[in-house]
Amino acid sequence: MAVLQLGSVPPWLESLFASEFGYAVLLGVCILEGAMLLRFMPSELVVPAALALIGSSIPESAAIVAVAVVGTTAGQFLLFCLVRRAGREYVLQKRWVPVTESRLERFDGWFDRWGGLAVAGSNTMLFVRGLVTIPAGLSEMNGRSFVVLSAIGSLSFQSILAALYLLGGHLLA
Predict the structure, then answer these.
(1) DSSP 122-138
(2) Phi/psi at 172 (nearest 5 deg)?
């Protein structure tokens, strides 16, 4: 039984991952994911696809997770800065940001209740990954604190994905 389907990776991206530019491609894809611009593949497939196509030895796995954390954190910081500069109404008007007013209010509540922990926590969770970036950007949160908390959550998420892939016997079909 295949948990993840490698067929979900666009063929052009699959060939780029498998090329000598695999790590650079991974970085770019992860920046897009962090900035909520990744629309051509599910974000939970990025690290497993990289492990399948670049390599899954211990050093390769560690490098893939590290590149993914740097990329997603950079993308989220770009979104954090955009939100801080442009404001709430701008974000709600943009179709590329997957958030409605009611959904944003829910994430505002998470951020109000948990503060920076909500940034790290949401980055570890499927489906809400990175959405607390918006209320964080609208708050008085320090950019450095945001980067650290975003990286912690991304490290958790990417490590879980890598572990599931590696411990699951490479269940990509």
Answers:
(1) HHHSTTTTTTTHHHHHH
(2) -85, 135
